[in-house]
């Protein structure tokens, strides 16, 4: 479910020459890093998520290998520890005009429509994340898919998105059958992929 940026070193080291599936199946890249296929979060869904979360939780937005946030803190540092690119303050990312809004007034709202957003992720204490998941599920309904890889993170994806769907698209292009696939996973966001693979290994 991570960015391609988190895997670039490994791709080069292993000399991988096949397409890669990233961001929970939302982005497929060719070996040289060109986007072959992508799915974006609807702008209105993204705005709803910002309204419901940004003031009370730590929220980040993924745009290819860039991770945007209103402000970095100890929770956004967790992503860097997971080998992800360091999150960037929306103000510092150059999305807001220099003569425009001061840094303290910048929100992820300013990124919506300005850059492609594939998914959003909330970081907080597990109990708060659990309560927020219920609220978002009620509010967003079938306009988004909610998944968790860790109990202190909640991801908001375009509806119907999954690693399984992304991998399925690559397999079709390569003419590889699902029963020839070995998939390995350890969290909720891996379930569909594990179920569809000929050999699914849950860790």
UniProtKB/TrEMBL annotation:
It holds the Pfam family Hydrolase_3. PANTHER family: HAD SUPERFAMILY HYDROLASE-LIKE, TYPE 3 (PTHR10000:SF8), PHOSPHOSERINE PHOSPHATASE (PTHR10000). GO terms for cellular component: cytosol. InterPro entries: HAD-like_sf, HAD_sf. It comes from Cyanoptyche gloeocystis. This is Uncharacterized protein. GO terms for molecular function: magnesium ion binding; phosphatase activity. The lineage of its organism: Eukaryota, Glaucocystophyceae, Glaucocystophyceae incertae sedis, Cyanoptyche.
């Amino acid at each position: 479910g991570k960015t391609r940026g988190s895997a670039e070193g490994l791709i080069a080291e292993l000399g991988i020459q096949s397409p890669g599936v990233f961001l929970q199946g939302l982005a497929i890249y060719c070996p040289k890093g060109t986007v072959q296929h992508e799915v974006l979060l609807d702008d209105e869904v993204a705005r709803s998520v910002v309204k419901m979360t940004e003031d009370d939780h730590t929220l980040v937005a993924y745009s290819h290998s860039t991770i945007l946030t209103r402000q970095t803190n100890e929770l956004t540092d967790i992503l860097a520890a997971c080998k992800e690119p360091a999150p960037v303050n929306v103000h510092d990312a150059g999305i807001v005009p220099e003569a425009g809004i001061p840094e303290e007034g910048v929100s992820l709202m300013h990124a919506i429509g300005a850059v492609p957003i594939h998914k959003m992720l909330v970081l907080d204490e597990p109990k708060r994340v659990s309560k927020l998941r219920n609220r978002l599920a009620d509010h967003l309904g079938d306009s988004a898919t909610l998944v968790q890889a860790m109990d202190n993170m909640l991801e908001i994806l375009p509806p119907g998105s999954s690693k399984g769907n992304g991998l399925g698209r690559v397999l079709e292009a390569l003419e590889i059958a699902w029963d020839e696939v070995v998939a390995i996973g350890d969290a909720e966001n891996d379930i569909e992929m594990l179920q569809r693979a000929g050999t699914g290994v849950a860790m």
